[in-house]
Design a protein that fits this description.
Blueprint (H helix, E strand, L loop, with lengths): L4 E4 L3 H8 L4 E4 L5 H6 L7 E4 L8 E3 L5 E4 L4 H6 L1 H6 L1 H8 L4 H6 L2 H5 L6 H4 L40 H8 L3 E5 L5 E5 H4 L18 E7 L24
Parallel strand pairs: 1-3, 2-3
Antiparallel strand pairs: 4-5, 5-8, 6-7, 6-8
Helix pairs in contact: 5-9
The chain binds flavin-adenine dinucleotide and iron/sulfur cluster.
The site of iron/sulfur cluster has 14 residues, from helix 8.
Length: 241
């Protein structure tokens, strides 16, 4: 692992101001970022720890929806009685992801921004346009059983691995952000993720240093919600579909 500076943010403004600096990276639960740092896929010069920020609440909104803070842990979100009763698809998707131990650390913001599970992205000896733009895509002619069928390009065929994000997309959630100047934005999740196209290294519509503060869920759709995840094992495996 390469040496880095560690900084704890006490306010959201402080975190956003620090995150905009070149080489800085936000750390929340760390369950994806630390793995990527050990492999030197991510090599931040500064880690900005946001775990002290007051972003861990789930609140009712005036229109009958819920506002989920960026630091709400995956396990807490899945277990919240309002989520279980009104947003069954979200609770089920969360519980279909990772393991209990990981869900206790993983956060709402970090889950949305976790990186792909493409094997070649994690292997720095292989070409990968997402990790190293212009180097090629080893997955195109490689082992690509877990890769995408729809929305691919000649430059990248990776999928986004988040179960939670799929449920949030089905629910038409909105992602709330703030930047280093303190400007807030609300991004519909349908516009949050980008297809790979010619620039697979650009995965979302977030600008440099912009941090996620919350996700808002609109009033829930009626009826019974189902989340069906096709995978190699019944638990602790990423989705094939
Ligand atoms: C063995 C294993 C199995 C897993 N299985 C599944 C699975 O089946 N399904 C699934 O969906 N997931 C799975 N995961 C992934 C897991 O859900 C993610 O690692 C986790 O949700 C990431 O959240 P985190 O808070 O730990 O993020 P971190 O690792 O802290 O951060 C991830 C990224 O998000 C950025 N970030 C974090 N918070 C913010 C913020 N508020 N604003 C801006 N940027 C931010 C970081 O800079 C980093 O780039 C698995 C992980 C492991 C290790
Ligand atoms: S599919 Fe995408 S992430 Fe995987 S090797 Fe190709 S460019 Fe990299």
């Amino acid at each position: 692992m390469k040496a880095f500076t560690y900084q704890r943010a006490d306010t959201t403004a402080q975190a956003a101001a620090a995150a905009v600096k070149p080489g800085a990276k936000i750390i929340a639960g760390g369950t994806n970022l630390l793995d990527l740092m050990k492999l030197q896929v991510e090599t931040p010069s500064t880690l900005v720890d946001i775990n002290r920020l007051p972003l861990d609440k789930i609140e009712e909104t005036s229109d009958g929806g819920l506002r989920v803070g960026a630091l709400v842990r995956n396990s807490d979100l899945a277990a919240d009685p309002r989520v279980r009763q009104r947003y069954g698809v979200l609770s089920r998707a969360l519980l279909a992801g990772a393991s209990a131990q990981l869900r206790n650390k993983a956060t709402t913001g970090g889950n949305l921004l976790q990186r792909t599970r493409c094997y070649y992205f994690y292997d720095v000896t292989k070409p990968c346009n997402k990790r190293s733009p212009g180097s090629g895509c080893a997955a195109l002619a490689g082992f690509n059983r877990i890769h995408a069928i729809l929305g691919t390009s000649d430059h990248c065929i990776a999928t986004h691995p988040s179960d939670m994000a799929v449920a949030m997309r089905a629910l038409d959630a909105k992602v709330e952000t703030v930047n280093g100047e303190g400007e807030a934005r609300v991004i519909p999740i349908a516009e949050f993720y980008r297809l790979p196209g010619k620039t697979p290294e650009i995965e979302t519509s977030l600008k440099s240093g912009e941090i996620i503060t919350a996700v808002t869920l609109p009033p829930p759709p009626p009826g019974v919600h189902v989340y069906r995840k096709v995978r190699d094992r019944a638990s602790y495996a990423f989705a094939l579909v």
